[in-house]
Amino acid sequence: MLQHNKPAPLFLPVLLWCGGIAVSRAIAIPFIWQAIIALALFILAILLKSARIYLILGICFLLGGMRWTVAQQTSVLEEVFKNRSHIQQDSRFLVTNLISSKTNLYEIELNEIAGIKIRENLLLYSDCKLIPGQEYSALLEIIPAAKDAVLDMYPTLPRAYIRQNLKVDKTDNSLFSIALWRTKLLANLENKMGDEAEFAKALLFSDTSAKGKYRDNLTRSGMIHLIVVSGLHIWFIYAVCMILLRAFLPPKIAETVFLILIIFYAALNYWAPPVLRSILMIGLMIIARWRNIPLGGAQLLALSLLIITAINPEQLFDIGLQLTFLCVGVIILGLPYIEWIKAKDLPALNIRNKMNNFFDLLLMNLVVGLAVMPLTLYYFGTASLNGIIGNILGVPLSGVILILSFIILIIPSGNLISASLLNSYRFLLYIFNRWTEFVASLPFYLQNHWITGLQLAGCILVIMGGLSMFKKLRIRWQNLVICISGVILIIIPQFHHPADRGIYLFNCSNGDCILISFNEGQRIMIDTGPHYRTSEKSWASQKLLPWMNRKNIKEIDWLILTHLDSDHSGGFPDIVSSLKVKNIAVTDETISDERWKEWENSALLNKVNIHCIEDTISYRVGEAKLKFLHPAKYYYPATSNSSSLVVRMEYEGKRYLFTGDADINAESYMLQHYPDELKADYLKAAHHGSKSSSSREFVRAVLPEEVWISVGRRNQWNFPHPEPMYNFQLYAQRICSTADGTIYHPFTQKD
Fold first, then answer.
1. Which of 191, 561, 657, 667 could bond to 680 as cystine, CB 3.0-4.6 Å?
2. Distance between CA atoms of 687 and 105, rounded to whole angstroms?
3. Considering the domain boundaries, does residue 138 fall inside one?
């Protein structure tokens, strides 16, 4: 077992090493300058004995930055993409993992392209099922990783699409083919367990495609960690393996065999940071015991973090690594010893110990739950303290289910023992699911509440100072200062209003979502982006709402829903339920639609002023003037696009025309009845640049300086079409597209 009271001289140096990696990632500092400063500090450390410890800590910080700088290498594909927007070449690739069975999304290892040997990881979208572990050849179209400078926080992999000539190249039958072993083991579970294999696949191998069925309930219940292969799983496996191996082998040989097996298991989980952390801690603990070296839990934790980040500093920014090290660190460093029930209150030793252990478990769940909340709020906008209750039964249940799954996997099927184990698995899974549903219904859950990076830093300071006082059960002024500093960082964003006033035309593929933020503080949103059938969540909930929360945008003065096509209204329920929306503008066609009636019946639109636009009408929003030009009272639309709202905005001496998906019929009506109203400096092109809109006459009447097109890169409809593009080139000075990222048009800032 881990000894928590042993010294940990590496802990602070490793924290500074990680700090150096983080700073070097944020600020590009040349390696040579870092090396010169580190050398200077080293010389000073030799000469100045009194300041040596601080200088050594500074060297640790610089070494972390140097390691990050050395690790940054431009890939072959990145070099090619500097001059080309895409690549289409014959390629060979190995399918390594199934990401989503619903959309046939795979992770692949590209081994050859155009006859050139290469090794790059890509995401592959396929029209047919592929087999992980199988090597294929095909004509691939490869598109660079699309990272929106405004919306996206995380780096993404390049995307590949199979265009033609897909064929099996060869099967990797190597004994060491991890992808093939993983595929066979997952298939083995499916054959033995049928429909109930999903939980075992997620539990044993953290199978991404199997998690969807359980994700929502486990997230709400605060037990999502139970289907992410973690350190907890490794300790369960360690306990079972050592019981079995020590029955036949001497202790050292048994532990050696276990280490070999668990390394193979880590490879099957693609070296996930939580798995790697646990294996390193167990391995170091075993080796230290062999050599009689006293290593405490904090020292093991620091050593594990140092090894992982030294091998691959990118892992430091993996949410799985951050969560696993935070949880274990809190348990090791932050939990005090409290004798809840004393001998004088309950003389029975056995009962007293069990009750004290139960209260210790509740305390651990509470402290860990509070500690991870800032991270989950920052990354996912969710937090749950339901796990304080849920983990009491969830952890032991999942542990037993894990062991049963492991045994069912390795023993032959079709006999009485395997049938009994399978029935036990199904029974415990049923209990686990009912327990999860109950815990998920508890009220201690937050959703769509993201925090900023500044608030995350403040929370970390509060956790550090608070845990230090909690561990020692006394208040020290240094820790109090740390906590107060953290609270100030948490509060500051609440009084900070974003300075980037202007118009955002968001990159939401072939959908529309526009946010207008005026200098005076009012905000207008036009449409809410898509909700595709293949996705469980809308684009707004995945991308827009996290960004708006980090910008401290909690309120929308006007939401203009041009029409109900899913690429424009897909995020409407999420936006209205997550933000305070004062006014909504829609057409009478929208109000008569069944979907709108469902939203009304669900109380989604309570406390919102609904403006039904049936004819040309004007409104004022602060200093801006809105004029709805279409649809007019006597216009009878043939399609939903024909009835799309068209609104002109006047602000700071400029005109902006937003056209939704208005088609040529709507354009013709406006040209006939009020052509002079169409003149604008900026035009949002209708229907993503489709040839069904933006006629030459209409664009000439608008005569814009700049055209904005909301469109996805290399989309299936080949938007924008040549005909409107030609019209834009004739009459506009500039053409901008969201295919290149979110368009931001700033307003002049007032003093």
1. 657
2. 28
3. yes
Q: Which of the listed residues 147, 172, 197 is the one where a domain comes to its end?
A: 172
At 216-253, the pLDDT tens digits run 888 888 887 777 656 667 877 888 888 888 888 998 99
3-state secondary structure at position 525: strand
In this structure, the answer to whether residues 529 and 624 fall within a common structural domain is: yes
233 and 268 share a domain?
yes
Structure tokens at 166: 């897909």
Q: Is 103 helix (H, G, I), strand (E, B) or coil?
A: coil
Quick one: 67 and 80 in the same domain?
no
Within this chain, do residues 214 and 361 fall inside the same structural domain, yes or no? yes
DSSP letter for each residue of 309-337: HHH-GGGGG-HHHHHHHHHHHHHHHHPPP
Residues 416 and 464 in one domain: no
Tokens of 61: 């910080």
Q: Is the confidence at residue 694, as pLDDT, over 90? A: yes
Q: Which uninterrupted H or E stretch holds 109?
A: strand 105-113
Q: In this structure, are 324 and 407 located in the same domain? A: yes
Query: Residue 146 has what pLDDT?
Result: 74
Contacts made by residues 647-653, CB under 8 angstroms, sequence distance 24+: 647/526, 647/560, 647/585, 648/677, 648/678, 648/680, 649/516, 649/524, 649/624, 649/625, 650/624, 650/625, 651/518, 651/623, 651/624, 651/625, 651/747, 652/623, 652/747, 652/748
Q: What is the CATH number of the domain that holds 104?
A: 2.40.50
Q: What is the structure's pLDDT at 634?
A: 83
The mean pLDDT value for 526-540 works out to: 83
User: Is the confidence at residue 100, as pLDDT, over 70?
Assistant: yes
d(CA 389, CA 369): 11
Query: Which range of residues forms the domain containing residue 46?
Result: 11-71
Average pLDDT rounded to a whole number, residues 292-313: 89
Portion of the chain with pLDDT greater than 70, in percent = 94
**Distance of alpha carbon 465 from alpha carbon 451, whole angstroms:** 20
In this structure, the answer to whether residues 278 and 338 fall within a common structural domain is: yes
Q: For the full predicted model, state whether its pTM sits above 0.90.
A: no
The residue type of 524 is I
- SS3 assignment, position 58: helix
- Domain presence at residue 2: no
Q: Are the C-beta atoms of residues 135 and 170 closer than 8 Å to each other?
A: yes
Backbone angles phi, psi at 404, to 5 degrees: -60, -45
Q: What is the mean pLDDT of residues 135-144?
A: 90
Closest Cα partner for 550 from 484, 455, 442?
455
| Residue 279 belongs to some domain of the structure | yes
Domain assignment present for residue 177? The answer is no
pLDDT of residue 1: 46
Mean pLDDT, rounded, of the chain = 87
Total domains in the chain come to 5
Among candidate residues 468, 460, 467, the one with its CA nearest the CA of residue 486: 460
